[in-house]
Fold this sequence. Notes:
Layout: E1 13-16, H1 26-39, H2 47-53, H3 58-66, H4 72-89, H5 100-110, E2 115-118, H6 123-133, E3 141-143, H7 145-148, H8 159-165, E4 172-176, H9 179-188, E5 192-195, H10 199-208, E6 212-214, H11 220-227
Parallel strand pairs: 1-2, 1-4, 2-3, 4-5, 5-6
Helix pairs in contact: 1-4, 3-4
Amino acid sequence: MSGAATPTWIPAxxxxxxxxxxxxxxxxxxxxxxxxxxxxxxxxxNLGWVRIHVGRGALELVRDAVGERAEDGFLAAMTARYxxxxxxxxxxxxxxxxGAAEALEFVAAGTAGRVAVVSNKDEELxxxxxxxxxxxxxVRVVVGPDTYGVRKPDPGALLxxxxxxxxxxxxxxxxxxxxxxxxxxxxxxxxxxGVSAEPAxxxxxxxxxxxxxxxxxxxxxxxxxRHGRGWxxxxxxxxxxx
Length: 242
């Protein structure tokens, strides 16, 4: 990416995942998924199952949930029904994660607004949630699999955002809660900070190559002060975020 801007502050752009990183999405996803499954007499999935299987998009989530009944016609119909139910309920059942608002505000100020949400949720649904929470004012670019026709970890989900920001991949940062986020960053040469309070998930992020794993997105400002360049933070800087 020759000619990209050389920033004063590193990272010069931050690309956030949405579900599980900024949004407490799993209960809302489970509600809609189980409603769709119940209509077809398929056993419900618990919250732990949902946490493990989200992140690759609605089609793959439903494919895993319906199991051996995942033939093309049925799978397409079930995915459409799940999305219909999800659209009707997810705003009510998807609160922001603690610290998300503060992290977005801090990063937007430090990067001159070079903040994106890159999710495997459709762009429209991500935008609706960001508008609902009031977070859209901190996010310049929103990307879903329908935006560029690819989904994470495909490099095509991230590279257009970085080009638009004029920031080289190595000068940016990806923040996400799943291995697919780490793979997406690795595919373009962008460091990744993982976010997970669950030991097994945190270890999976480390094993996948995350630069660091934080217990919550609320720890990101303090981590940037310690490990970025040019960052200042008025809040407490915990000693265990590395």
